[in-house]
Amino acid sequence: SKLTNLGHLEMTWRSRVHFHPLLVRILHKSRLRYYGKPEKKMDMPYQAYFEVADGSGMMSMVLWNSLCPEWYHSMKVGTVLLLAKYAIKTSYPFKTHPTPGDSQMKRFATIEISLNVRDPSSEISIIPEEMVKPEWGLPEVKYRFITRSELDDLPHNHSCDVIGLVTFVGRAERARKREHSEDFWLYRWAHAIDGTSDQPFILELFATSQPDVFQHIHPMTYLVCTQMRVIQGLTENPSRTVYLTTSNESQIFITGWHKGQPYTKDAKVKNFIRWTKSQSEADQIKRTVIGGYYPFPRPPDSFIKY
Questions:
Q1: What per-residue confidence (pLDDT) applies to 101?
Q2: Longest dimension (CA), the chain
Q3: Rg (CA), the chain
Q4: Res 254: pLDDT
């Protein structure tokens, strides 16, 4: 069928009601959002957004309501989609934006693709990777992996991806989303090493829409975290307090989930795997810890400093 592209959509969307199909690749995926309220009677008040791209650039795509339980888990980073009967809306201005792996990619920020059950009823098809043709010109998923030795020099709020061997994972803890609120964030702390520094990555991992991964982070697993944010210099001694926290677009993967993921081709990931093969598993297991309370950033040694 006749296809359009994202660049052409941005130029012509105001003058059309019906749009030609789109062929795009998912580059980023947000966590699933529940926006139900007791006074509003909605069957499936869910929303998730994705950043999708073709040869012309990148745009947000929003999945609404009952399409979320049907499609959310099938739509992975790297998945190629054929979209028809979608709607185009002006972008929601307060949405968070992931940092693209390819800084040269054009971003179409004024509009977004909206996929709904009705008005119109969107048609979504997943194209298997072996059927994707090079002439379609779809961009590859790119990452921004860093090593632990590079972390201390990165600015506050910098976006990056990391891979490491888990040496510590804390218990799940809760924090109120707002004061006096009944809603909580669920999170846990983890340490991961990659052989480039004596210090581990300190990771604050909030529960994303991957409960099966979040609950099974154990010592000695290979952990990949994407779209992490650097939190730098909370005290006078910044080297002790630099850590990474998840963002709205973070994805977490552990041993058993890596096969077929786009990051397996990344040079820094391959270097890490080479390093792990040179390590003694018995030595690493002796240094691992699980559970317990983890105060961070650590309080000073004495009350006077406190």
A1: 86
A2: 73
A3: 21
A4: 96
Per-residue confidence (pLDDT) for residue 238, from 0 to 100: 46
* Degrees, nearest 5: CA angle 26-29-35: 135
Q: Is the dihedral of CA 18, 19, 25, 29 positive or negative?
A: negative
| DSSP codes joined into one string, 53-117 | EETTEEEEEEEETTHHHHHTTT--TT-EEEEES-EEEEPPTT---PPPS-TTS-EEEEEEEEE-S
| Residue ranges of domains in the chain | 6-136, 148-303
**What's the fold here for domain 148-303?**
OB fold (Dihydrolipoamide Acetyltransferase, E2P) (2.40.50)
Task: Please provide the size of the chain in residues.
Answer: 306
Q: Which CATH class is domain 6-136?
A: mainly beta
Rounded to two decimals, what is the model's pTM?
0.89
Work out the end-to-end distance of the chain between its first and last CA atoms, rounded to an integer number of angstroms.
Answer: 68
pLDDT tens profile 219-235: 999 999 999 999 986 65
Q: Which residues of the chain have pLDDT under 70?
A: 1, 233-240, 305-306
Beta bridge partners of 202: 191
Spatial distance between the Cα atoms of 27 and 106, rounded to a whole number of angstroms: 13
